[in-house]
Amino acid sequence: MNTQVSFLEGTYTLIHIPLDLYPTLLQPILRILLPQTQSLNFSRDSTEYELEGLTTDYQHGFLNISITPIDCSVVCHSSWAKNVFEPALNALPKNISKSVSVFKDTYMILSVTSAGLDPGGRVMELSSPLAFAGIPIFFITTYYSDFILVPTKEKQKVVQALLAKGFELSENQSNFVNPSMYAPNNNSSSNNNSNSDADAAAAQQKPPGTPPPSNDDELQSRTFELLLKRNVKARIEPDLELVQCSGRETSPLAHPYGHRPSISRKSSVDHRRSWITHVDTKLYTCLVSALVSQPRFLSLTLAQDDPPSLLLDKTLLPIFDDSLVGDTEGVLIPIFLDLINLPFESTGIVCGVAGRLVKGTDTTESSELSYLSTARAGTVILSRVQSIRAMEILTPLLNKTP
């Protein structure tokens, strides 16, 4: 089993939009989604003309737009947050704009590709070394890859945590590879042994009096103590069923089809033609239609080496016609955790919740577990049968008397 972790270029910003303001801020969201529009009203000397984070064919190196029953969140390159989103926000009355959160800390994005690990195992294996190092993360599972957002200021701790976990730095020092990741869903004792080096590294970085958890059980216990203290409940939205799909790619790619051009601020390519000729215009028309409809659930991820990935309310499928590929007949059930009362710097939430669910279910039952972090919520995505068992596990943990 081989797992590769790569740092994407650039720094990224996380934006939280309350659902009641989603219609008000839809225009800057669409401007970010459609980068070609940036060239229409700006001269080559303007800062907006040279927005960063785009490939040479003017597609996003990374972008996530997620609408859930709890919140809307956008993860975009920091230059887009500053030059596109913040001006729109500043134009609103202060009593309205103050409810929107543009996170002050910037984030870097780890792109993870795994061979041989099921989705539930990937969530655990990738989040655990960072949790034990006390690093807050956001986790996004997509159709092709997993992405982890970590604060830019924590980069050195991330590197140390990965090295302690057994990852090796590649020759060009652009990514980490762990060719011997153990199989997922092992029992707690084996996981405890595998985390010992990460624990030691984390202990050296923690201030006195705040030692890291010593094993998976302690991490999960701390996680649920925090969730219980902050009155976080797990809930399933009635009649909300999701499907995980991918857009059809119109240009050659390497993951799994090829590589897009590297990210660059400038290109000799005519930017007014290159974007539209390298995307599936039918898919983007459908995306705009879905976003305008104020969907109940839609998470779109664009990444440099992947075709577009969507996790969406199954009732939206007719909008997309035949522009999607994937198991559109399948059904996934989201379990929502409203994390608005948790500090941004909370650590171990993804690993603690996922770990407890993996521990409480059969190996085959947990194989489809995936996770989506938005700015103020965590969403565990499971099959219908798995979701029933998960609620049986989570409900008593989040409702018992302290």
- CATH top-level class: Alpha Beta
Whole-number tally of structural domains? 1
Number of beta strands: 18
CATH level 4 superfamily: VC0802-like
Global outline: globular
Radius of gyration: 21 Å
What oligomeric state do the depicted chains represent?
single chain
The largest sheet is: 8 strands, antiparallel
Provide the CATH architecture: 2-Layer Sandwich
Beta-strand residue fraction: 15-25%
- Strand order in the largest sheet: 5-2-4-3-13-14-12-15
Derived structural class: alpha+beta
Low-confidence stretches: 181-209, 252-272
Cα(first) to Cα(last) distance is: 41 Å
Question: Might you state the CATH topology name?
Answer: VC0802-like
Which percent bin holds the helix content? 25-40%
Can you give the mean pLDDT?
A: 81
**What is the count of DSSP helices, taking H or I runs of 4+ residues?**
13
Pfam families: ACT_7
Domain CASTOR ACT: 103-162
InterPro entries: ACT-like_dom_sf, CASTOR_ACT_dom, CASTOR_mTORC1
Region (Disordered): 178-218
